[in-house]
Amino acid sequence: MIRKGLFIAPLVLCAFAWGVEAQRYSNYYPRGYTGRNLYEHGRSISDDLVRCGPNTCGVGAHCTHGSVRPVCACLPGYSGDPLSQCVKIECVDNSECRGHQSCVNQHCINPCEGACGTHANCEVRQHVPVCSCPPAYTGNPFTACRIADPEEACHPSPCGSNTKCHVANNQAICTCLPGYLGSPLTGCRHECDSDSDCNAQQSCRNFKCVSPCSDCGVNADCETVSAHRAICKCPRGYHGDPYRICSAECTSDSECPSYKPACVYNACVNPCTNACGVNADCNLRGLTPVCSCPKTMTGDPFTFCRPFEARDLCEPNPCGANAKCTPGHDRTGAERPVCTCPTGYRGNALVSCEKGECELDSQCADHLACVGYECVDPCLGNTQCGSGAVCMARRHIAVCTCPGDHHGDALVNCYQSHSEAVSTRYYRYKRNGNFTEELPQVPTLAVDSTEAKLETSPENLKTEKQN
């Protein structure tokens, strides 16, 4: 039984393998054989024998295994018959050739060969042949070029009557002859035959429309033209016939009268006329006008003068640098500018004001006070206290005290005590010379003038000053 099973198993495997292989080819439909199974009657013996070999395809071709038979094709960059020989391609389009060549039939060639006519020049631009006739030649560069005649375009002349023909850039140019106008292609005529052919500001002279101002005399001005005629006039300072000659009124100052002493542009004039502003005075220095405002007025004499005002005393500022000007009066009541230094400045306001060192005590050190915008010692050389007293500056004020073995009023006099009953006072002194307060008296002590002294320790002084 076991041997029988071993004999049947290979047959089952072969049947299964044949079914799979048949299934693989049953779904293949090569072009032209749609709907028919090429292997429905089984495989041919040659199907296993035809494979890619060294001689299956031509030179320059490569072979690949297709679904039915080997497939031959030229290698990339080659063309031809893949069964016999493939030749390397030189180009596919113009971009693969040099700028002076073109791609023709997969080869880079000179496109000018046979492209242009006889005597023509050929130039390759971007792989394209461009034909042109050389200088001094004309014609169709694609057929033939010939020597050009410079005046050929004007023979015969394509222009009308009374015209001139000349050649420019091988083209005939037609223009009317001088004194003629119109269309040069159909014919030109005189610019004018009478004044009516010209506009009102011109006259017809020698068949041309010109300005009639040439009719004016020597030195005369042509003011305008009306009805084809010039209107002439002698200029200022001249007199005479404007259609013949105008003579000058003067040629030098000596020829002019005193009320018009200057000879300007051949005319006698007063230099002060319209030289100065409104309300201004004009006086001549020689022949030069000098403008000024009257004594009771101020302003710009070349434009306008006005009566004085109080604000004019400070315009411009007559005071020193940084000083302030204010209109005021002197002792006689006459108006005058008053110069002062502004807040925070000090100095001579007529000369210069300088910014002060301070404006408040807080801007100075504790032992200095702000006096006259300057940080100074409030003791002022120990002149603020009484005789024999000591001055110390604290919190920007002068503090007067009697020394340890002295008594009395520190603002008036400090003296050594010889009595048995002594009292000590302590004063604080301000900058204006007045003390601020009187501190409580130290308890009265009975002492012997020769054996005892009233001692005030630094701690007691500190306590008293704080109080």
From TrEMBL:
Top-level division of the source organism's lineage: Eukaryota
Disordered: region residues: 447-467
Biased composition (Basic and acidic residues): 450-467
Protein name per its UniProtKB record: EGF-like domain-containing protein
Organism lineage string: Eukaryota, Metazoa, Ecdysozoa, Arthropoda, Hexapoda
SMART domains in the record: EGF (SM00181)
Location of the EGF-like domain: 48-87, 150-189, 310-354
Keyword terms of this UniProt record: EGF-like domain, Signal
Residues of the signal peptide: 1-22
Species: Pieris brassicae (White butterfly)
